[in-house]
Task: structure prediction
Amino acid sequence: MKRFLFILTLLLVTTAMLAAPLKVAFVFVAPIGDGGWSFMHNQGRLYLEKVFGSDIVTDFIENVPEGAEAESVFRGYAQRGYDIVFGTSFGYMDSMVKVSKSFPKTTFMHCSGYQVTDNLGTYFGRMYEPRFLSGLVAGAMTKTNIIGYVAAFPIPEVIRGINAFAMGVQYVNPQAKVHVVWSNTWFDPAREKEAAVSLLDIGADVIAQHQDSPAPQQAAQDRGVYSIGYNSDMSAFAPKAFLAAPVWNWGPYYEKVVRSVMEGTWTNAQYWGGIKDGTVDIVLSDLVPSGVAKLVMSMRIAIIKGDMHPFVGPIYDQAGNLKYAEGEIPSDGDLLSMDWFINNVVGKIQ
Result:
């Protein structure tokens, strides 16, 4: 009789556990209405709600600064019994590492980081692939051969993106230069617009960016020149300027993570997906001439098939040093730690 009651209790507990919805939290560094980075991560959260319905419960906090405040937010979600916590900014890394060690039953996922623990994994996308494609567009469309790039922070993620973009520019237009100005922001429209204006003032007729707001594109439109967006299709914000944008699509990857936790197969693997996986891609506007669009799409297919890589030698740095020989491709480790500019970039890594 006791054995029967034990088995019955175990079954009831197991059933209750299976019936309880998985609790999934997201922590955003900017407002979800930014139209960019946080907006696209939140689209991934909404995608989860559509896919899983009542099997999950999601929550989010926006505008969370990197540092002590972020640590408190992560700790709070773990204390409230959330099963998965996604942190979506590079600067959350140290906080997530620390909190994950205190809450081993919670699964933590950090976007763009490189440190893992037993219950903390990392994920990111090979944004350098569509960055290269957007550089093809910029290089083909510039008339002054001065292309402006409003850069966020001098970290490998941003530097890698600038170099990939510059590789695309160089591929179609060896005479053009990519001029970099740092804003040291992820989301500060006024400051980012000011940085774009400084590039327009030196003759830039295409403005690219790494931040989350459409402000640099709006500055370009105000001057009657072109822009390259980032994160999402921001054409509605600057329809007369917007040429293209490298974009994110997080939904399918978030679904994969949630299913792995549900099924007990999650591991702390470090994910880095590309165009082939659907994590990143490029959007083009009707302002891009058909010939340029065909080139971009053919190169996109070549990347998917593995027939070409955005970073293939010869590649020289700003000082003229050969970094990668003819046909040589940097390793993932080299790309993830990139801290130098290629030879058609004008500006310093501050």
Remarks:
- The first helix runs from residue 2 to 19.
- The longest strand covers residues 242-248.
